[in-house]
Amino acid sequence: MSERGDEVKLSGLGEKELLALSKKMLLSLDANEMREVQKHYKKLGREPRQIEIETIAQTWSEHCKHKTFRAEIDYTKNGKKKKIEGLFSTFIRAPTLKSKKKWLVSVFSDNAGIIRFNKDYNIAMKCETHNHPSALDPYGGANTGLGGVIRDVLGAGLGATPFACTDVFCFAPPDFPKDKVPQGVLHPKRIFKGVRSGVMDYGNRIGIPTVNGAILFDERYLGNPLVYCGTAGLIAKGLEKKEAKPGDLIVVVGGRTGRDGIHGATFSSAGLDEASTSSAVQIGNPIEEKKMMDALLKARDLGLYNSITDCGAGGFSSAVGEMGAEIGARVDLEKAPLKYKGLRPWEIWLSEAQERMIVAVPEKKFAKLKEICEIEGTEATVIGEFTSTKKLELFYNSELVGELQMKFLHEGVPTKKLKAQWNSSAGKEISCAQPDDYNQTLKQLLSMPNIASKEKTVRKYDHEVKGGTVGKPFVGVENDGPADAAIVRPLLDDWAGVVIANGINPMYSDLDAYAMACSAIDEALRNAVAAGADFSRIALLDNFSWGNPKNPKTLGSMVAACEACSDSAKALDVPFISGKDSLYNEYCSKDVCTAIPGTLLISSIGIMDDTRKKVSMPFKRAGNLVYVIGETHSELGGSHYAKLVGSAGGKVAKVNFKKAKKIFSSLSTLIAKQKSEEKIVAACHDCSEGGIGVALSEMCFAGMLGAEVDLKFVPLGEKVSRDDFILFAESNTRFIVEVEKSRSKEFEKAMKGTAFAQIGKVTDGNNLIVNGLKGGKIIDEKIGALKSAWKGTLWW
Amino acid sequence: MHCIEIAFSDEKLDSAGTGAKNDIIEDLGILGIEKVRFSELYYLEFPLETSKAREIAQNVFLDPIVQKFSVDGELFADYNFCIEVRFHPDVTDNLGMTAEEAIEDYTREKPQGHVHSARRYYITGNITREDAQTIASKLLANEVIETYKIITPPQGAKGDLNE
User: Fold this and answer.
1) Which letter does DSSP use for residue A498 in this model?
2) Do A278 and B144 touch (CB under 8 A)?
3) From the CA of A254, how many Å to the nearest CA of chain B?
4) Which chain A residues have a beta carbon less than 8 Å from that of B142?
5) What is the arithmetic mean of pLDDT over A304-314?
6) Distance (Å) from the C-alpha of residue A259 to the closest C-alpha of chain B?
7) Residues 284-343 of A with CB under 8 A from B
8) Does the pLDDT at position A666 exceed 80?
């Protein structure tokens, strides 16, 4: 066979045959797209070569082009029809562009979003999903998920220095019955342990702290576990722009190319089934990435290259294709260093072997770059050059094996047309009997896997390396209370810090995707504000993991979630700076397809000018006053309490944007204003899973102090006459705050205009005591017993 | 071609083995396990004198204070089943590639072929071959990227090999 590769015969094929071909070659292109390719090559008067059609398929993949987020959607909401010209531009990007915040440096245009940090530096942040690979090989999938997002940040602007990572996972419950796990699926506990080791081995070995995260459980994640990885990086001002120039050498730096992960991008754009195989799996090597990173950061500081990007999904094809999109590129595939012999040209071009970056290097600077790479023990190899032909020309041993027009490659993909449908629900509140024994109920809630301590997992990660982690994942007298957010000082000679938090609540998705998205945003913000972030300088990142968008109801719930992002961003004046989506998360076995619940991860990144003013969540001193900020509603739908008592339906927690904005800005201003050595707000914790009951318990056992509170003082947004509803409702924008007892006037003055009330005091007893609406004690439990319940579930 | 095997001498230091034992009991519910010993293998896929392979084992791979090694033998003999796990041929083997570099650093010449890594779990306990199969496929090896084989002790084996 000639190295020209096989020609793929398209001419004369009908729709069915085109689709069959797409499926056989794992292209994941639909009939419409295949027809477009057919038309293009008919015009050229020839058949496409395999390398060309593979390049088109990967460039046009859902993973790279986000076709669903750019699609034209006929949306029917509560019976009313509406046309949406692209979810991304309408709902995510538009509010950010309108916000005109001066501290936004680069949004939605690069590998990562970039915001201002201090007078000399900016911060880049990116969050990614690595779901499909983690389902097949949890260790390698998580490993390369982290490696990939670190490279994204390293490839942001002219290169940011990664300084912190976050990880959020969704799995099926670890006690899922073994005999019910379908053929070809790994047991969720095995996936959990594999993913955890993957994160540990990558993050710890490369020397970047893993500072924040979350782990959630739902049975529908059985065939489709979700693995989100995020990285934040530091980049000097002025380095945010990059541009490859014609004549620049195309240089690959880092690892060698093998047969790893061929078809990863197209694979992630298809659903999983029993037959999914190994070729999509990549293996990570943190030491290789560390060497590459060190070399590139040195080269960045010496100004040795004009542009940089990582080889992610699609490998060279997407890295070179994107960098040269406006100019053109010529690649000599035989020059790429290989792990082993025998790769065909298209395999070299599309391999997703890890730990590789592409840089555009002016010819006279290449020798210096090569020298630096040799010192760091990594490779730098010229594989071609950027041109001004507006074409992508691929050679193998001087023979032209593929030629594509940049314009067709990047703009030729037909806009998808999709239908979506959504109805908002007014839902009746859950119905259940009040508990006989609140002590027991509270302990049961604390031991639910979503709420229970994740310390056994988090402690496997190094969250201290680099020495900047000032707000740690676990806080309190015994260092085991759950912190709301991580705080990192990327520059050790500056007290300013970066606050990293997240919000996610797929449990609300089934009832009301709009409220779910608002809640996730609210949670991400309140976690950041609780720790001390400046509310006027918080940016958000969105990560959508959804089922099959061809199902109008599935897509409808995603449209509703996007509308929520837009409404929240505008009303709260908080911009999105970067995002990602992973669709087709459904697993089919024997004709039964299970989709994941629509899962939106919101990551927040905030700045605080002086990290010494940070506030942590444990109670600090007996005698101090306990306040609740924010209104409690009868909002139990999708709550952990509803799940515990087995009650479906219910009213989902909503967000009142106006009140939320006032609370966030008042609390944030107060925390920023107080003196670090004599704080008014001694402790602050957000109320989320399990409501006030769980938040109070956590503050008690983290601080090893008791508390006594009265439910009758809790500020309500409507009439709520049940103790259990007040204790366990998951209403948004609520905080529990411990106020220094002599400073209550200052606190109340600062919070004027918001709903807040003192509900009790911190005590030096051993118990959490809660008095019900009718007076008497309804909870009187030892904090040790609460802590044991919280720690017991996931202690492996 | 030779195979170098490295393991901790003292069972107490063998956290990978102990971890596997706990997972077998807790996650798979196979209770008859007495002990699991773990070892790392390096297949040197090129011609080499046995004495040179021993020299490389001692100078490149072994920590002589806490570990023991063998060349072309099994390090443990008091087991019922031994499960050996290695990658499929095309899957990236970082440990193997690093081993190649380390050998090159020591011998000052490029090895004439590749090194492939593998690992063994020597299981002692009252379990059946079927149990061993379950342990291999459900816990120790991911057949998407790895293969495994189950080894039973040779006839007449006595005690640990100790070199």
Assistant:
1) E
2) yes
3) 14
4) 137, 139, 186, 194
5) 92
6) 7
7) 285, 287-288, 339-340
8) yes
Alpha carbons A232 and A228: distance in angstroms, whole number: 14
Chain pair A-B, CB pairs under 8 angstroms = 46
- In chain A, what is the greatest distance between 2 CA atoms, to the nearest angstrom? 87
Strand A161-171 relative to strand A210-217: parallel, antiparallel, unpaired? parallel
Residue in A40, A63, A640, A685 annotated catalytic: A63
Chain A residues lying within 8 Å of B88, measured CB to CB = 278
A569 vs A99: CA distance, rounded Å: 9
Test B91 with A288 for CB contact under 8 angstroms: no
Same CATH topology for A97-241+486-603 and A432-466+615-796: the answer is: no
Query: ipTM score of the complex?
Result: 0.86
Q: CA angle, A549 as apex, A544 and A553 as ends, to 5°?
A: 100
The Cα angle at residue A156 between residues A68 and A264, in degrees rounded to 5: 45
Instruction: Say what the pLDDT of residue A340 is.
Output: 81
Record the pTM.
0.93
Contacts B145 to A, Cβ<8 Å: 137, 140, 278, 281, 283
Nearest-10 Cα torsion for A304, A309, A314, A318: -90
Q: B157 CA to chain A: closest CA distance, Å?
A: 34
Distance CA A457, CA A437 (A): 31
Taking residues A184-202, report their average pLDDT: 93
Q: How far apart are the first and last CA of chain A?
A: 54
Closest CA to A343 of A227, A455, A257: A257
Q: What residue of B is the nearest CA neighbor of A338?
A: B92
Q: Nearest-CA residue of chain B relative to A261? A: B91
In angstroms, the CA A123 to CA A530 distance is 21
Percent of chain A with pLDDT over 70: 97
Nearest CA in chain B to A341: B90
CATH architecture of the domain formed by A432-466+615-796: Alpha-Beta Complex (3.90)
pLDDT of A475-506, one tens digit each?
A: 999 999 999 999 999 999 999 999 999 999 99
- Give me the helix-helix angle, B94-107 and A286-301, nearest 10°: 70
pLDDT digits (tens, 9 = 90+) for A394-425: 999 999 999 999 999 999 999 999 999 999 87
Is there a contact between A137 and B142 if contact means CB atoms under 8 Å apart? yes
Beta strands in A29-186 (DSSP E): 72-77, 80-85, 104-106, 113-116, 121-129, 161-171
The domains of chain A are located at 97-241+486-603, 432-466+615-796
Instruction: Quick: pLDDT tens for A588-641.
Output: 877 788 999 999 999 999 999 999 999 999 999 999 999 999 999 999 999 999
B105 touches chain A (CB under 8 A): no
CATH superfamily of A97-241+486-603: PurM-like, N-terminal domain (3.30.1330.10)
Separation in Å, CA of B114 to nearest CA in chain A = 10
CA distance A438 to A709: 14
Beta bridge partners of A625: A739, A761
Overall average pLDDT of the A139-159 stretch? 94
**CA-to-CA separations, A98 to A91, A571, A660, in angstroms, rounded:** 11, 12, 21
Task: Establish whether A410 is a catalytic residue.
Answer: no
Tell me the domain boundaries of chain B: 2-151
The residue of B144, B145, B146, B147 whose CB has the most chain A CBs within 10 angstroms, and thus the best one to mutate to test that interface, is B144
Q: Give A335: exposed, middle or buried? Use CB within 10 Å, 0-12, 13-18, 19+.
A: middle
Instruction: Return the C-alpha torsion angle A93, A655, A601, A553, nearest 10.
Output: -80
Sign of torsion over alpha carbons B153, B154, B157, B159: negative
CATH superfamily of B2-151: Phosphoribosylformylglycinamidine synthase subunit PurS (3.30.1280.10)
Q: Is A130 one of the annotated active-site residues of the chain? A: yes
Place of tokens 């290169």: A159
> E strands along A721-765, which residues?
735-739, 756-763
